[in-house]
Amino acid sequence: MTSEPFDAVSVIRTKRDRRRIPDPEIDWVIDAYTRGVVADEQMSALAMAILLNGMERDELARWTAAMINSGQRLDLSAVARPTTDKHSTGGVGDKITLPLAPLVAACGAAVPQLSGRGLGHTGGTLDKLEAIPGWRAQLSNDEFLAQLNSVGAVICAAGDELAPADRKLYALRDVTATVEAIPLIASSIMSKKIAEGAQSLVLDVKVGSGAFMKTIEDATELAQTMVELGTAHGTKTVALLTEMSTPLGLTAGNGLEVTESIEVLAGGGPADVVELTVALAREMLAGVGLDSVDPAEVLAGGRAMDVWRGMIRAQGGDPEAALPVARHKHVVTAAASGTLTRLDAYAVGVAAWRLGAGRARKEDPVSAGAGVVLLVKPGATVSAGQPLLELHSDDEARFGRAEEALAGAIDIGAAAVGAAPLIIKRVE
Ligand code: URA
Question: Residue 141 sits in a domain of what CATH number?
Answer without folding.
Answer: 3.40.1030.10
